[in-house]
Amino acid sequence: MHDAHSAPPAKPVALALGEFAAAVDAQKLPASTRQVCAQLMIDVAGLCVAARNTDYVQACLASVLSDGPATAIGHKRGMNAYDAALVNGTAAHGEDFDDTFEGGPVHAGAVIVPAVLAIAQQRGLDGNAVMKGVAVGVEIMCRMSLVTPQAMHKAGFHPTAVIGGLAGAAAVGAAIGLDAPRIARAIGIAGSLASGIIEYLADGSWTKRLHAGAAAQAGIRAALLAEAGFVGPPTVLEGAHGFYKAFGPSKNPNFSHLLDELGTRWVTDGVAFKPFACGTMTQPYVDCAIELARDGVKADDIGSIVCNVGEGTVHRLWEPLALKQAPPNGYAGKFSTPYCIAVGFIDGDAGLGQFTNERTQDASVRELAAKVSFMIDPYNPYPNEFTGHLRVTLKDGRVIEKHRAHMRGGAHEPLYDEAIVAKFRANARFGGWDDTRTDALEAALSAIAAGAQVDFTRLEV
Question: What is the pTM of this model?
Answer without folding.
Answer: 0.93
